[in-house]
Write a sequence for this structure.
C-alpha cells in the first residue's frame, strides 16, 4: 500500500475504498483539467479534433500515471478465493495465516505487506513457516517483527494440500475452519476487506 492509500485507509477504514478512491479523485481532477483547457483553447483557431484529443489526453493522464505506479490487479476486482479441504484442527479465533516457505522470495516480500496492513485490521496475522529448521523461523520472525506471530510447521503432508503448491498462501480461519484461502497472485483488497 502506498502513502495515499494508507491516508484514505486511516480516514475511512476500508481497504476497498483506500484502493479505488485515489483513482476516482484523479479522474475527477483530470476531467476538471480537460474542461479548463477546452474552455481556454476553444476560442483560438485550433482544429477541433486536435483540441478534443488534447483535452481527452489531459483528462486521462493523471489516472494513467497513477495506474502505472500503483496498478489494479485481478484480485482487487474479483474474489479469487477457494476453500481447501483439510484435517487440521484450528483454534476458534479468527485469524489470517500466511503459509510460507524458507528461501521463497515472494514469501519474504509478503512480510512487508502484512506488516503494513496489520495495524489496520482487526484480524490477527500469523505466519506458518514450513520445515523443521528453527533458523528459518527466526528469519521470518525478524522480518515481521513482534506484532505478527510465526510458527514452524514440520508436518508438510497436512499443510501442502491447503496451498495447492503456491506460496505464499493466505488462509482465513474462523470458528475452527478455513473459510477461504488465496494464492499470492489473488490476494487483493477484496480479500483484505474480509479481514475486518
Amino acid at each position: 500500500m502506498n502513502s495515499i492509500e494508507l491516508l484514505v485507509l486511516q480516514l475511512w477504514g476500508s481497504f476497498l475504498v483506500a484502493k479505488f478512491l485515489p483513482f476516482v479523485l484523479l479522474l475527477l481532477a483530470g476531467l476538471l483539467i480537460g474542461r479548463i483547457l477546452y474552455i481556454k483553447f476553444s476560442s483560438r483557431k485550433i482544429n477541433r479534433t486536435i483540441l478534443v484529443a488534447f483535452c481527452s489526453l489531459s483528462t486521462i493522464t493523471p489516472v494513467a500515471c497513477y495506474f502505472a505506479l500503483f496498478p489494479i490487479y485481478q484480485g482487487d476486482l474479483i474474489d479469487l478465493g477457494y476453500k481447501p479441504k483439510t484435517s487440521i484442527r484450528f483454534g476458534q479465533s479468527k485469524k489470517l495465516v500466511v503459509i510460507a516457505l524458507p528461501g521463497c522470495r515472494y514469501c519474504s516480500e509478503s512480510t512487508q505487506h502484512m506488516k503494513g496492513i496489520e495495524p489496520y485490521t482487526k484480524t490477527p496475522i500469523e505466519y506458518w513457516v514450513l520445515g523443521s529448521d528453527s533458523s528459518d523461523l527466526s528469519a521470518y520472525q525478524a522480518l515481521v517483527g513482534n506484532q505478527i506471530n510465526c510458527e514452524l510447521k514440520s508436518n508438510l503432508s497436512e499443510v501442502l494440500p491447503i496451498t495447492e503448491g503456491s506460496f505464499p498462501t493466505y488462509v482465513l480461519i474462523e470458528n475452527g475452519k478455513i473459510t477461504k484461502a488465496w494464492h499470492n497472485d489473488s490476494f487483493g483488497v477484496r480479500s483484505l476487506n474480509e479481514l475486518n
